[in-house]
Amino acid sequence: MINDGDIEERALVKKRHSFSFDDSNEVNTLDLGKRGHIIEGSENVSRTEFNNLRHIPDRLPYTAWLVVFVEFAERWTYYGTTNIFNNYIRYDMPRDSSTGAVVDPTDRAMNGVAGALGKGVQISFALRTFNTFLVYLTPFLGAVIADTKWGRYKTIIVFSMVCLVGHGILVGSASPDSLRNPDIALGLLVVAIIVMGLGAGCLKSNVSPLVAEQYQGRFRKVVLDTGEVVIMSPSITIQSIYLWFYAAINLGACGAISAAFLARDHGYWVAFLAPTAIFCFIPLVLLVGNKHYIKTPPRGSVLLETFRVIRMAMAPAWSVKPSKIIRGIRSKDFWNPAKPSSYSRGRVPLSISWDDEFVGEVARTCNACGVLLFLPFYWLCYSQIDGNLSNVAGAMTLHGVPNDLLQNLNPVCIIILIPIFDYLIYPLLRGLKLDFSPIRRIYAGFLVASLAMAYAAILEHFIFKTSPCHDRRPSDCKGANGEPMPSTINVWVVSGPYILVGVSEIFTSITSIEYAYTKAPARMKSVVMAFAQFQTAIAACLNFSLTALNKENMFVWLFGTFSITAFVVGTIFYLIFSGLDQKEVALNSIGKGERAGFIDEK
Fold it and tell me: Where are the transmembrane segments (predicted)?
């Protein structure tokens, strides 16, 4: 029970010190006691209304849709190039071709595959893995530049031009003149990958927070046409924004379907030129909305102060014994040494140049980063749809379908499912008061990814049984006359893993960028988003370490191992972080100044 004297005393403490991360429940109780149960920062929404009325997403501003288009165009160009890297690098030039296209109609009908450089499976795998690593490492550079120097908008403009230069180099690498010498073409490809990786990575860490920043709404009551009173919820709106943002990503990936046909029928320089032309729309759309975007200005470097806060908090917990370090980190008083409020007046260390709220922001950032650290094991499963499953498809009866076309089933599935989840499944769960929280959604994604890899392992087993070459590179099995001899299994059977991985992305991938945005303080959103994307780079490193296993005769073991890993790691993830579900709303309040009226839902 809090009496009037306690309220006054705590009000003085609150006034003297900024919001403390560890005292969020106490401060929220105080706010409710003083403001008659009206949530501070909301538009006159009471706690009773908050708990009992149905929550729905708000309408998205048109500037958010402009940013969504930017992501759509960028992803079209990314997938329109990387989706055909495998065949471009791995396979030899088809008969009578100078561009990589399958010229002979007979070859095209008989499982003919486009190719150019003829460097084999492992070089193809290595370059594609390097590309993924670079694209998901460079977001840190874009994040630091945006948060400290240029702001997100200018950073996106500058690096979109860098990316465009890289695409130009890529088109040149695939010209007939370059392909006359595969080694020269390979060198130009590596340069293009580096330049495009720098540009695309610096875009990635800034476009995703920029789209959510366009919405600045608060909790408010609205009467629907049916007469029902509902609450427009910022958190649900952000969830909806990222669902449609991810739909744009996959719609762009679907646009890349044309790349496989362009490469097979017209050659690789044409296939690479088409996405380059699409990319030209990005600077135009950014400039059109220039005066209307909500732009967060650079705040100066907070990374140094963040590390100083962590160092001060860690000092008492440090020990040569790992068990003592873990106990110290888990202690509820862990962050106190870094808080100004922990010291009496006049005794605050000179090295402390921040307030309690900044310590709360760092604590929340560390929580978010801890959650994201498990994602590399999920991305290992996802990475298989990029190349290895394409090789699996290449061993099956194609019926005239390019083997690298099937991976586009993944984005098609996501585009179909996102409206179903946004308009039907998630509202139904909210209506039934079932809390499908971010932690539970991420865990569900791990389980579905595990199922996808188990499906792939079983399918590969049957391909080995039905291929004339069995487990001796069935994707390259040929008869005495050089004609392909595929497995009798229809290529569309491989759609299962692509579709299941797509479902898992709705749960894990979308939720991870939503979690990174909502948990990141305003001063560190790009950095935390870059950290989320860096998990894919870590997965690429892990995948690269498994190069020896990326052979067709090892695919059953590879897919099976990933299936078990996703299940085990996902379960460990849920056991560790399920407690954060109860703190979801309170965690979202840190670093929002007046805290926008978020309260502890209990």
Answer: 125-146, 153-172, 184-203, 241-262, 268-289, 405-429, 441-464, 491-515, 527-549, 555-577
Q: Using alpha carbons only, what angle is made at residue 570 by residues 568 and 574, rounded to the nearest 5 degrees? A: 120
Dihedral through CA 559, CA 563, CA 564, CA 566, nearest 10? 130
Tokens for 477, please give them. Answer: 């099995």
Angle, in degrees to the nearest 10, between helices 438-466 and 555-577: 170
pLDDT 10s digits, 258-278? 888 888 888 899 999 999 999
Task: Give start and end residues of each alpha helix (H) in 83-181.
Answer: 85-90, 105-109, 120-137, 139-145, 152-173, 176-179
What are the φ and ψ backbone dihedral angles of 118, each rounded to 5 degrees? Answer: 65, 40
What single letter denotes the amino acid at residue 169? I
Question: What distance in Å separates the CA atoms of residue 543 and residue 377, rounded to the nearest whole number?
Answer: 10
φ/ψ of residue 488, rounded to 5 = -75, -5
Residue 20, pLDDT > 80, answer: no
User: For residue 232, which phi and psi values (nearest 5 degrees)?
Assistant: -75, 115
The alpha-carbon radius of gyration of the chain (Å, integer) is 26
Cβ neighbours around 408 below 10 Å, total: 23
Is residue 92 classed as helix, strand or coil in its secondary structure? Answer: strand
Coil, helix or strand at residue 545: helix
Place of tokens 């079983």: 458
Q: At what angle do helices 257-266 and 234-255 cross, to 10 degrees?
A: 10
- Please name each of the domains of the chain with its CATH number: 4-54 (no CATH), 56-300+362-588 (1.20.1250.20), 303-354 (no CATH)
Q: With contact defined as beta carbons under 8 Å apart, do 407 and 385 qualify? A: yes
Spatial distance between the Cα atoms of 121 and 137, rounded to a whole number of angstroms: 24
Q: Which two tokens stand for residue 225?
A: 């046409």
Q: 285 by DSSP, 3-state: which?
A: helix
Residue 214 · residue 71 · CB < 8 Å? no
| 339 neighbors 359 (Cβ within 8 angstroms) | yes
Element (H, E) at 189: helix 182-213
Could you tell me if 163 and 199 are in contact, meaning their C-beta atoms sit under 8 angstroms apart? yes
pLDDT in tens, 44-103: 788 888 888 888 888 888 889 999 999 999 988 998 888 888 888 988 888 778 888 877
Residues 211 and 143 sit within 8 Å (Cβ to Cβ) = no
CB 564 within 8 A of CB 552: no
> For residues 101 and 402, is the Cβ–Cβ distance under 8 A?
no
